[in-house]
């Protein structure tokens, strides 16, 4: 076991230079802070009388745009971090109604989805880090094409109300978010090698991936639970 762990650690050290490893530590530490902020947002929505509704989505988009528009000059890191944590908070508030409904169906679904999301995220992140340099960056065009197609699919389904299209969009979205974990992780590494130290925006990109996987897993697991219950009643 020890040689295996040592080999695994050496693989990271051989593929990732010390500045890149330090940058990734900053990115993932910031990502964890954002996830904690999102958890607070979920708690606020579920267990207090504060109901932001659609306003939280608008506010979240505004905070994200402000973060992106604020340059990373080394002097406004705290401000940009505040924008990111605010975005995490509003994202959690936006997830609140979904998780509240799921908690009535089966509270364990939330824990299962969170563990599943963490496992998928970690595995895809490690796979991206240990892959050949730039080997996943080719996914960028494919992922953006798929994202655009899914946007049109979602728009069309507003009028068609097709269950098949909804399910297709749901599962394709899960695949898309997993692909973005591979792509964004390698892109972050390459950006750092080119001199970028913007760990706040890099954490934002990974947080969007993480929350996207989590949301879809929650919905898929909830659908499965409801189907199982209907079969038992029949």
Automatic annotation (TrEMBL):
Location of the protein in the cell: Membrane
Record-level GO cellular component terms: mitochondrial membrane
InterPro entries in UniProt: Bax_inhibitor_1-related (IPR006214)
Protein name from the UniProt record: Bax inhibitor
GO BP terms, alphabetized: cellular response to unfolded protein; negative regulation of apoptotic signaling pathway; negative regulation of RNA splicing
Keyword ATP-binding listed: no
Record-annotated membrane-spanning stretches: 50-69, 81-102, 108-130, 137-158, 170-189
Molecular function GO labels: enzyme binding
Family to which this protein belongs: Belongs to the BI1 family.
Originating organism: Papilio xuthus
Topology relative to the membrane: Multi-pass membrane protein
Key words of the record: Membrane, Transmembrane, Transmembrane helix
Domain of life where this protein originates: Eukaryota
